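Sorry to interrupt, but I need a hand with the structure work. Could you add the entry underneath, on a fresh line?
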Amino acid sequence: MDKVEEILLTILTNIVDNPADVKIISTELATDERGEFTKINVGVHKNDAGRCIGIEGKNAEAIRKVVALVAFKQIGKRV
């Protein structure tokens, strides 16, 4: 597990009620017009999904921004 996944796991396990159900799957993808990127899929318990998404997706967007910043600074790639 790389630094980006560790930070994402730390964030999510502190948000949810069922931290044992948090699953993170990274997939290396090809390039697009903006360069190389990695896709990260997250799975949480069904009762925790709303908490991770937040009102109007604000929690999800904040998590995306933090993870994207860490990924760019640590490994120089987009996620």
Notes: The chain has a mean pLDDT of 88.
